[in-house]
User: Fold these one by one.
Assistant:
Number 1:
Amino acid sequence: MRQQPDIIIPDSVVMPRTECRTTANGVKIYILDSEDFEVVRFSFIFRAGTSMQHKPFTASATVNMISEGSQSKTAQEIAEMLDFYGSNYDANIDRDYAYLSFVSLSKFFDKTAEVAEEIILHPSFGNKELQIYCSKRKQGLAIERKKIDVQSRELFGKALFGEEHPYGKTSPEIEYDNITRDDLVALYNELYTANNCFIVCSGRVTESVLRTIEDIASKLPQGRARGVEFPAPTVTHRIFKEDDSALLSSIRIGRLLFERKHPDFVGMQVVATTLGGYFGSRLMQNLREEHGYTYGVMAAMVNFEREGYLAIATQVAKEHRDDALREIYFEIERLRNELISEEELQMVKNMMIGEILRILDGPFGIADVTIENIMCGYDNSATEQSVDAILAITPQEVQRLAQKYLEREDLVEVVVG
């Protein structure tokens, strides 16, 4: 007879601490050394997200074009060098930060670092490459915006923050026609600077590796801090956009709350997970399993540098739109009016702790969590404290948070379809 093994959830999580060095020009380098791996990842993180741009789409254009040729190498030569040595380069951007990450086998680190220096310190931002990029992105965005889930996501941002807020602002795709090389050079010179950067290194980080990364970082121009004026959010509680051609309706419900530093943030993560954070969540059981309105629904807390919010998102057949809305609000009210059972709450805790352990399974996952902690002004003990808070939460606390933050009149509703 086969017996399923017991599920064992640890009563604590220990996060590796970082060593920190600071270069002469002020760049902090956080080190997570692991001798068990013959690989190195180093990430340059710049406060150069889309909320920092003066002109639409220039922040994303800059981070995506930064590897498309340098002063001494073409884009093809850069790509071929990385490919030849089995190295990986990835560029990403969000509302607050731009991320340039390199992964290399330890034995080819020096060659990878040579390419990294070209990309980070000497981008050429060629006119021809920029025209191709803008043309592709303009066409791609136009196609994406025909999808109702993209429309609802953009409208949800506007509803939460307002059209003039950096976190809620969107621009027409025709703005790609107005981007020039000078725009990218100006943004790069202003934001890709020493005072606007930190670095996280993980894997086998030897002293030689550190010296090389320090050398690259020390060549970044000093720069100067630039603040961005963030207007107070202006909330619109209901937006409905009719689209007769759509077979589905895209629904987003939530509200503006607080960033991760708030003492109730972790508790609201538990609330969100209970509602729609895993396959057996209440909204999944209701909308998918019981009624068959949708293939999936999610709920999560979203954290930006200056704000945070709760979001519930799903797509349903248009004939079930009103029914789905009713059931979403029903589950919210049930969480507010009835104590969650100890058994269900334990399942939610297990899912959340299990996901944290999955992310932390390896040096690169630990590095990703470290980056998030640094951006929030924390060290890695913050992850341990979050786990402790999840394990300690009670049914009464879940209900208190739901009653405090999920009143119907405070919620934002966006429907497209």
Number 2:
Amino acid sequence: MTTVLSKDERRSIRKAGSILSECMDLLSKEIKVGVSTKALEQEASRFIASRNARPAFLGYKGYPAAICTSRNNVVVHGIPSDKDILASGDIVGIDIGVEYEGYFADAARTFAVGNVSKDTRRLISIAREALYEGIEKACVGNRIHDISWAVQSFVEANGFNIVRAFVGHGIGKKIHEDPEIPNFGKPHTGRILEDGMVLAIEPMVNVGTADVKVLGDGWTAVTSDSKLSAHFEHTVIVDGKIAEVIA
């Protein structure tokens, strides 16, 4: 079921988005050479609790951590670990979900660690720009696959591949709701977007093949060819001609 939020409900979900954005900004300052991904999770957990909110991922379908930390060839759902230490030249995707007073927000960013190559910085830039290409299409009267095509066409025109195994989603009173929002598809198809719909748009962009595989922990998804992947996500409210980014 898709949640369509009233004006009052939008004020409530903005609070969840604000907490998440603050948390992401805090972690961005902690991402340094020598830091473990577990330390990042612990910092996020402390911050979220300090705002009387809840980490939405912890325990979701058995997921064992408060955030996802996806390094280098990990596409999504990397599990924080004391043994996973950031090194110069790495990239790391941070994915956070927050629940506040019954409303959810979800966001992800990919960060460079230390000195990274020009090609790696370009991957991050294209993945970030692809997200905004999609958001531009998240307006009343457009269709879901207008978002999808905007992301896919931009990524592929820049020589990268879009992951198809994982997609964006509706969000609101649950962390995952309908509709699914693929990062690929035919324009002018799919569900019509309505005022008040809340969407989590999240392109995952690979240097090499679009194919992924899930490791034995049942969560960590990596590129099939071990090449780099970058992930960006915003939660947005469909509102007239310009979507409102809340996280």
Number 3:
Amino acid sequence: MRIIIYTGKGGVGKTSMAAATACRIAEEGKKVLIMSTDQAHSLGDSYETELGKVPVKIADNLDGLEIDTVYESEKCWGNLKEYFKKLLSMKGEEGIEMEELLVFPGLEELFSMFKILEIYEEGYYDTLIVDCAPTGETLALLKYPEKFSNLIQKVLPIKKKGVKLVGPAVEKTMKMPMPGEEVFDDIEYLMEKLEKLQNLMLNKEIVSLRVVTTPEQIVLKEAKRNVSCLYLYNYNVDAIIVNRIYPNRAMEGYFNKWMEMQEKSLCDIKESFHEIPCFYVELLDKELCGISVLKEVGETMYGESNPNDVLFQEEIYKMDSKEKTLRIYLPFAEKAELSLKQTEDELVIGIKNEVRRFFIPQAFLKEEIKGAKYEDGYLNIRF
């Protein structure tokens, strides 16, 4: 099964590009499911079809669904949810407001991720296309499994032991319910799912990310940051989709000055993403919605390429034991935004406000960093 995730700055047309790709792959005979994780769903509008929380047939070989986080939370929370309901119901009455309160910040992303894992494990479809929320939310969604797993692994043993020792006293004094064994069992179950999810998302033979941009400098800069951060978390970006290119015939008269700006951006895209395949979509003279239009765009966008293939793959880590050098691929990172720290067994690398921890290879565990240099898209670390 293939999983292809589309992301990009809000308003660049990633939903349309994901929808067109799904049409193209379905036309070739693959059984495709396209899913939207964006809470402001517009996937159904693209297909001019009403979509919901369960797969709906859109066309031959093509189904679609839009994530309902409250519905997904019912399936994921279990005893954890019941425990929080007890806490909340101490001060108020149960109702729909309580159900919504139980979707804490960040859990929407986690539920979306679990849905991807669930569909993959069912194995009913050949290809899953994921139309993600805009860039910031996508990055949160993709780094959530690792962040959450690390937190639970550090906190769970302490909390579990503490509840056993002082739980009854706290419950009596504070007059509030303490979590039972079944709550911790659910947390451990979540940890198992997160581990499976992390392994799936980092499998570059299965999962690809495609960044959608337009030929405008402000959008292109965010696309570069997006690609750099995705590589920081070791995800495989296998294509760049350049949408809404103005045809030459449309640039006469009033829009003439846009031609020079567009050409500059297109040159920037070719130079910046010269290793990653780029696909170009001209601005249409009609609205990009409906099956027939999406099929047309899917055909012209990919040409002879097969969008179901892994179109590009870059190994993020390169280790040279003789030279005692570790190279980490971080395209488009700005030197001024990079930070590097070494702990006992980890490298802590930051790009602006994104931070990732890498385990130091066994060969370098007893070594200290002697220097680091960023060049040609790689952070070269000498031990």
